[in-house]
Amino acid sequence: MHCDDLRPASLGLFSEEDLQQPAHIQVLGPQSRVLRGFALPWVEHLLPQLERVLEQAPFRHMVTPGGFSMSVGLSSCGQLGWTTDPSGYRYSPVDPQSSRPWPAMPKVFRQLAQAAADAAGFTGFSPDSCLINCYRPGSKMSLHQDKNERDYRAPIVSLSLGLPAIFLFGGQQRSDKSQRVPLLHGDVVVWGGVDRLRFHGVMPIKEGTHALLGQQRINLTFRQAGAGQEFERKTRSAGQRPND
Ligand code: SIN
Ligand code: FE2
């Protein structure tokens, strides 16, 4: 056997598309990528801003239309915040707890989200909403689609911080088989285009203590929830670094 025969492709481990991506980019689907460690250079700039946002809009456990209290604590920043209560899911310009507008989205949040969208091939991403999810050991998120946004042309950009998680990335139907994708501190997942409405969720977080964030996982999900905009998909892989 020639040694070339032992390339991962010939073992059927990776698709052609996977092999064309730099090692830190994992292909989940035609228009969905995990950008491994993408946010690590940004974290020290992000955390103080996150703290400021959470002082103004602390985590709270919202109730689903089915009457269940979510195990994940939620907050938001940006022009619109995703909320749920017994009357339904919606985006609101106002934090229902304080009756004030959500805290503004810090510039460095927007820059990170745009750089990640760019790196995954979605140029022109302009998030107006950042949902902040706080998971404690045992917290989980059931399979769902992100479909309260007005326009599905913009991708979803999702940053993981703190404790690791197993992200479930399913198909267009709830019953489709899900991929189990480990997500670590600093990883960013981007899905859009033909993958925009794929079901996804998070398995119960395991006990643990993260060096920076302690016993929690924080997920920042950036969305363009309001006005629509044209999005162009290009194949690019270069990341951008924070400039502040
Ligand atoms: C979400 O879908 O809102 C959260 C996903 C995650 O926590 O990774
Ligand atoms: Fe989601």
Automatic annotation (TrEMBL):
Residues 126-226 form the Fe2OG dioxygenase domain. Its EC number is 1.14.11.33. InterPro entries: Alkb, AlkB-like, AlkB-like_sf, Oxoglu/Fe-dep_dioxygenase_dom. Residues 224-244 are annotated as: Disordered. GO terms for molecular function: broad specificity oxidative DNA demethylase activity. Its cofactor is Fe(2+). It is an enzyme of class 1 (oxidoreductase). It comes from the Bacteria. NCBIfam families: PRK15401.1 (NF011930). This is DNA oxidative demethylase AlkB.
